[in-house]
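Good day; I would like, with your permission, to put a structural problem before you. The record follows directly beneath this note:
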Amino acid sequence: MLCHVEDDFSRDYYENNPRWVVVLSNGESVFQDDGRPGVEPRSAWERLHNYCKDNNLHIQSMSIMFRSNRQALPSNMDGYYFSKGSRGAFGFPKTMQLFFVGILNNGKLEVSCWKVPEMVKEKTEERDPTQAGICLIQKDTSRSMVAQDS
């Protein structure tokens, strides 16, 4: 189950958490709703990954946001990457929350670390897309190659 429209749970999630929003290749919008009661897996990105794979879909555009602060990634990339992280330091009372967000373009995966909910980009690095696992949702390039060869 994916969250395609705003409801009470997603609105509450939106007020209290940074989140991603994507538009799929079929025009559907999907909103992050991690931890929705009664829905497994708890990770909305994992559910999205499975949905895209099962329905031969891909992400056309992606944004990360906290309330009105929205950061859009480039559209129509070969793939999109997402994972969460945290950072703590001795002597600091609060753990810093992080989003790792990236794009796959021509085989090159660039992932940026964002401090959230402040939406501050800290750094960008290149990663190996073959090691990205479920964090990377990419276009099925084999289908487009078969169509081109026909």
In short: Residues 8-139 form one domain. The longest helix spans residues 44-54.
